[in-house]
Amino acid sequence: ITIQHPNIVRGLALGEHNGLKYFAMEYIEGESVRDRLERDGWLSEQDCTALALQISSALLSAEKVGLIHRDIKPDNIMITTAGDAKLCDLGLSRIANEDSSVTQSGIALGTPMYIAPEQAQALSNVSSRSDQYSLGASLYHAATGCPLFSEETPAATMTAHILMEAQHPQ
Known about the structure:
Strand content: 15-25%
Shape: globular
Number of helices: 5
């Protein structure tokens, strides 16, 4: 599958050299949303809005070709020096309706603080809506400076996504 969108980091080459597999992608001058959060604590309302619009557009484009990212999080969103958001790291991506045996059905894939409930439960109905949930959790973190859920263990954090309602930000 190929996907070209101004808010998705472009893949340039995929191959193998001396038994090592590689993937080369577009160089992005800038920083991740995670880096920005660590430095500034949170993003402004204007930056969050721009981020939401740009990454939502990228996810819509991915959905149109049947691609599900499955690991939307602040670490995987770059902000260029020009202020554009770029979605990267499609390492856990899969094609919608792909044979689930290819992606190890029954194993939760994703990052606990941003994982959609159906991913945390390792259900087979992971879809573009799962990416939207993870984008929402990432935006909550960007806007408030705190993750939606951050329990003592990864398992407890995933359980919180399944069973708890988000708290109103302080």
